């Protein structure tokens, strides 16, 4: 959170410099691809010799939250002169940015070995069983609005403005996401070995990374298992869950 506010202050002067709390260099490491070369991460500090202890991280988190709360009046005072200060838009930006990082952390947590994680006792049980029946939906032709006018939303990214109305011809689309069961047919039909089903760059990625099935599937003794964050489940028990794949796999 504090990084987003710090960066915004540096470029737009929305907040006074004393509002934010400087982060230790180790906290600024990232995984975002470099703009000019997506095969590399953007510039960030080297891997530190010592990562902060849990207590240090929690203390830093608390300082950041306190700084955010303390900045409310400072932002409000700039509402007349700074667009992102108006209606506290900068705070919406900070929250949206934080949610992006939380989602990325969730992907990373998903890929950690199960033995390195502990399933919380409060976590609800899995929802299993049949899902909504699959079937196409007919969408008639008509106007569609892309984006929004600035005053219609309390917050939006720059590429969401302004509103653009376009005519969309009639089309048919599946009423539900592709499921594990449906994608299993693609896997078992040799979909990961057929270059003709993939666009060139996706096929190169598949071969380079040795991808032969969705990342959270495991073939054990001839049976497919689905790896959640904390457990392994038989794939047939979650056959109606939406399949979890990359863009390249989805396009195939």
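-> sequence recovered:
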């Amino acid at each position: 959170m504090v990084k987003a506010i710090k960066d915004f202050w540096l470029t737009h002067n929305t907040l006074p410099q004393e509002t934010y709390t400087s982060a230790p260099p180790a906290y600024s490491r990232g995984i975002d691809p470099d703009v000019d070369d997506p095969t590399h991460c953007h510039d960030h500090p080297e891997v530190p010799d010592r990562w902060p202890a849990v207590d240090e991280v929690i203390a830093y988190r608390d300082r950041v939250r306190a700084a955010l709360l303390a900045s409310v009046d400072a932002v409000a005072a700039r509402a007349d002169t700074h667009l992102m200060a108006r209606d506290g838009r900068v705070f919406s930006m900070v929250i949206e940015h934080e949610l992006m990082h939380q989602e990325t952390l969730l992907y990373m947590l998903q890929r950690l070995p199960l033995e390195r994680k502990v399933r919380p006792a409060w976590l609800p049980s899995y929802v299993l069983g049949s899902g909504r029946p699959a079937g196409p939906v007919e969408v008639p032709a008509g106007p569609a609005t892309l984006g929004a006018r600035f005053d219609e939303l309390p917050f939006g990214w720059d590429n969401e403005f302004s509103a653009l109305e376009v005519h969309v011809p009639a089309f048919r689309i599946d009423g539900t996401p592709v499921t594990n069961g449906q994608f299993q047919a693609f896997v078992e039909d040799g979909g990961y070995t057929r270059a003709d089903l993939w666009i060139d760059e996706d096929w190169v990625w598949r071969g380079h990374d040795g991808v032969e099935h969705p990342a959270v599937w495991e073939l054990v003794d001839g049976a497919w298992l689905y790896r959640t964050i904390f457990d392994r489940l038989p794939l047939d028990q979650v056959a109606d869950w939406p399949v979890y794949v990359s863009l390249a796999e989805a396009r195939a």
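The chain has seven helices and seven strands.
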